[in-house]
Amino acid sequence: MTTTQVNQSNAYNDESALNDYFQSLSKMNATPLWTAMDKIVPPYPKPRAAPTAWAYSVMRPALMHAASIVGAEEAERRVLMLVNEAIAAPYTTDTIYAGLQIVLPGETAPAHRHRAFALRFIIEGTGGFTAIEGERIDMRRGDVVLTPSWQWHDHGNEGSDPVIWLDGLDLPLWQHIPINFVDQYTEPRYPSEPAPDSAARIQWKIVAQALDEQRIPHAIYQYHLPDGSHLSKTISAQAERVEAGHTTTTSCKVLSYIYHVYSGQGFSMIKTPNEATAKRLDWTEKDTFAVPAWSEVSHTCTMDSGAVYLFALNDRPMIESLTFLNKP
Ligand code: 1HN
Question: Does the record bear Oxidoreductase in its keywords (predicted)?
C-alpha cells in the first residue's frame, strides 16, 4: 500500500482528520458538495416561503399609523412590505414581492425609475393617480396599473381620502441578479398628461366581465397586454371567481402566487411540499395571502349567495420562459 492510499482511508474513518480536511478546504474557498447535495438539489421542490396571510383589518390601521409618522415624499414610497413568515423581506413568496402603499390627499410619491417591474392593484380611495412616462392614469378600485421597467413614475392623490393599493414587484429576482437600481427624477413629478385610454391600466370591469362570462363555478382569467403577452417578462396576474358555497378542485401548480381578495369571504387550504398537512387561511374582502410554489391549493367561498372575486400576482412569465410551467 502506498502512503497516499493509507492516508485516504484514514481520512474517511477518522473524524478529526475529516474535520481538519474540511477546514483546510474552507481556507481554499472550497467545500465538499457531497455533504450539501440534498440541500442544493432537494429530492422534491422546496419553496422557502410558507403560506402567510395579511388581514386588511390589521394592515389598514398600520398604514394609517405609517402615514402619521412619515410623509410620502420623505419616504419616497410609504409602503409596508408584506414579509413572508418564513423568509425575510423582500420575499413575499420566493419569486414575488408585495407591499401595501398609502398616499394621503395632496401628497406625492416622487418620480423615479428602476429596472424592476411593478404592477399595482388598487384597493381603496378615489382621486389617486400614477403618472407613467408622461401618461397620467387614474387609480380606481380593482384596476391594475402597470409600471414597466425603466419608466418614470410618480403617484399622487387629488381626492379627499387616503388611496391604498397593493404593489407587486419582481424584486426577489434582482436579489440574485444584481442589476436593478433606481434613478431619481430632478422634480417630484414627471410632466404628464391625462391618459384615460392608457394600455398601462387594466380596468376591473373588463376582468369581472371576462370572469362572469365563464358560466362555471370556478372561473380563471389571465391578465395580458393588448398583444396577448403576459403583463411583464417576470411577473403577471390572474383573477378568479368562485361561486357561493363552492370549493375549487385542489390543484398543484409550479407557480407561486400572492392572492388579494377583491370581494367576498372564504378560506384556502394550502399544502406546501414541505408540510404533511394543509394550512387553512381564512380571508375576507381586501385581505392578502401568499401561496408558495408547488403547493396543493383549494379555495372555498363560504358565502350563501353571490361569489368571491380573487386577484393574484403570479410568476408565470418567468417559469414559462424557462419552459418549466408543467411538471415532469
Ligand atoms: C417602487 O418604485 C414602488 O413606485 C413601490 O410605487 C414599491 C419597492 C421597491 C422598489 C421600488 C412604487 C417599491 C418600489
Answer: yes
Residues contacting ligand 1 via CB (< 6 Å):
77, 79, 99, 101, 109, 114, 116, 118, 153, 155, 167, 169, 171
Measured in angstroms, how far is the CA atom of residue 73 from the centroid of ligand 1?
13
Residue among 99, 98, 89 at smallest CA distance from 48: 89
User: Which residues constitute the domain of residue 88?
Assistant: 52-202
Asked if 292 and 252 touch (Cβ cutoff 8 Å), the reply is no
118 Cα–ligand 1 center, Å: 7
For residue 287, which amino acid is it? D
Return the ligand 1 atom nearest residue 97 CA.
8
Asked whether residue 225 is assigned to any structural domain, the reply reads yes
Cell of residue 151, nine digits: 419608466
Tally of CA atoms within 13 A in the half-sphere of 291 that contains its CB: 29
CATH number of the domain where residue 310 is located: 2.60.120.10
Residue pointed to by grid coordinates 376591473: 204
98 lies in the same domain as 135? yes
Q: Assess if residue 235 is contained within a domain.
A: yes
Single-letter code of the amino acid located at 304: D
211 CA → ligand 1 middle, Å: 29
pLDDT tens-digit map of 174-224: 999 999 999 999 999 999 999 999 999 999 999 999 999 999 999 999 999
What letter represents residue 161's amino acid? D
- The label of the residue with cell 419608466 reads 151
Specify the length of the chain in residues.
328
- pLDDT tens for residues 135-170? 999 999 999 999 999 999 999 999 999 999 999 999
